[in-house]
Amino acid sequence: LTGWGDDNLVRLFLDKIGKIITKNMILTDEDYEVYIYVFEYIFQNIIFWTCAITIGVVCRKVKEMLVFLLVFIPLRKTSGGVHAGTVDVCLLFSVLIYFINIYIPELWNISFTVGKILEITLATMIVILSPVDCANLKLDQERKKKKKIFTGILSIFYTSISTIFYFYTETKVTSNIVVCYTTILLLLLIGIEKNKKVLYESDFQRESKKI
Q1: CA distances from 24 to 21, 70, 93 (A)
Q2: Computed from CA positions of residues 93, 99, 102, 108, in that sequence, does the dihedral angle turn out positive or negative?
Q3: Mean pLDDT value of segment 99-106
Q4: N or C: lower Cβ tally within 10 Å for the chain?
Q5: CA distances from 211 to 86, 200, 201, 203 (A)
Q6: Would you say residue 158 has pLDDT above 80?
Q7: CA 115, 118, 120, 124: dihedral to nearest 10 degrees?
Q8: Angle at Cα 57 formed by Cα 53 and Cα 61, nearest 5°?
């Protein structure tokens, strides 16, 4: 379940916290691991949000930071996509994706027409493909339907907001959202391919057992 490793200092620290919080509880080893996993998830998010805000302020990328936190993260939650296998790798890639989203938009000036075409095209593809679940988070049809609806609503909202900002001379917002959409779409495509591989390996193992 956990991703830091038993000898990692972070894991040892969280293990101590977990024992203090659950000392009066009667838990199985499996239940305790679930608690530690939750602690790790919270700890990871604290680190990421602290890093994101600090980098955004220090590097004078506050607008880009806000677009990422307010657009990428909610849309990523509803659309899904590939997920790292461990907590530490997830944190590393989250920071990497963050840097891509705050620095790439400044490398190009996008016109209104091109920006809207890209936004609408990317948003449409995201809605069509979403949600993409993974081995650790399977979704039933009802939850998939709800997430797809939320993804569509968010995409329409963000694209509309960027249009308003564009006419108020905040043209970079469109570039930021296009980069966010592109990153999310890539994560969806990678997630789909990874799911296909997992499904193929599962089918192969079942066929091997029959033989």
Answers
A1: 8, 39, 37
A2: negative
A3: 88
A4: C
A5: 34, 17, 15, 13
A6: yes
A7: -160
A8: 100
Does residue 11 surpass a pLDDT of 70?
Answer: no
Angle subtended by helix axes 112-129 and 141-167, to nearest 10: 170
Q: What is the largest CA-CA distance in the chain?
A: 67
DSSP secondary structure string, the chain?
--SS-TT-HHHHHHHHHHHHHTTTS---HHHHHHHHHHHHHHHHHHHHHHHHHHHHHHTT-HHHHHHIIIIIHHHHHHHB----SSHHHHHHHHHHHHHHHHHGGGG----HHHHHHHHHHHHHHHHHH--B-BTTB---HHHHHHHHHHHHHHHHHHHHHHHHHHHTT-THHHHHHHHHHHHHHHHHHHHHHHHHHHHHHHHHHHHHHH-
> Across residues 60-67, what is the average pLDDT?
89
Kindly list the distances between the CA atom of residue 185 and the CA atoms of 90, 100, 209, in Å, as whole numbers in the listed order: 18, 14, 36
* Distance from C-alpha of 209 to C-alpha of 211, rounded to nearest angstrom: 5
Locus of tokens 């890639």:
93
Give the C-alpha separation, 208 to 197, whole Å.
Answer: 16
- The rounded distance, in Å, linking the Cα atoms of 96 and 100 is 6
**Alpha-carbon distance 27 to 210, whole Å?**
38
Task: Supply the pLDDT for residue 13.
Answer: 67
The residue with greater pLDDT, 143 or 92, is: 143
